Amino acid sequence: MLALLTDAERLLVAETEKANLTTLTEDELAALHDRIRRARTKYTTNYRRQAASSVGKVGGRGKAHGQNQRSRAKAEVFEVALANVSTALAAAARRSAAELKSERLAAARAAGATPAPAKATSTTAKRAAAPASRGPKAPVKTTSGSKRPAPSKAKKNAHTKAAGARRQAKRDGR
């Protein structure tokens, strides 16, 4: 299958070998992922367009299937390469997330090492330390009489908003 690729494409696929991926940083992997994804999308699109245009000429999808082998093979090569890079990128992202988490925890432990202020023991001191109340909240009107909106109402409202957004997106796409 690699014989179908140009030299530049062959070099791009060679970058996705596991030995090469282990030496790359997360940013380099993301850039490689983007380049591979663009190449895969290019050949997948080419394959679909060529197949769709040849259906009318040859009289059916089954007959048109065999006439577009090159683009399909290239799309498959880049699909496998993209899977390799995606796996390596996910592993690198997990590693960096774990490193960041450990750094945050270490910083929090270091900040927590300072002595905490003495806690208030009397009720008046506790009230003084508590944030001021904003006053009573106005009850939310619902059909069931509870102070909390019904979950079905919230779901309906969300559904209505989403439907409106879809309609607007459809109009904008025209």
Count of distinct strands: 0
Query: Element order, helices and strands?
Result: HHHHHHH
Basic shape: flat
Sheet of most strands: none
What distance lies between the first and last C-alpha atoms, to the nearest angstrom?
41 Å
| Radius of gyration using CA atoms only | 30 Å
Oligomeric state as shown = single chain
The percent of residues in helical segments reads over 70%
**Portion in strands:** under 5%
Mean pLDDT: 81
- Please work out how many helical segments DSSP would assign: 7
Catalogue the unreliable spans. Answer: none
Structural class: mainly alpha
Describe the structure.
The chain has 174 residues and is mainly alpha-helical. Helices cover 71% and strands 0% of the residues. It contains seven helices and no strands. It has helices at residues 7-14, 18-21, 26-58, 61-65, 69-112, 123-129, 151-172. It is flat and about 85 Å long. The mean pLDDT is 81.
Summary of the model, kept short:
The chain is mainly α and 174 residues long. The chain has a domain at 2-112.
Features of the shown structure:
174 residues; mainly alpha; 7 helices
Explain the layout of strands and helices.
Elements: H1 7-14, H2 18-21, H3 26-58, H4 61-65, H5 69-112, H6 123-129, H7 151-172
Helix pairs in contact: 3-5
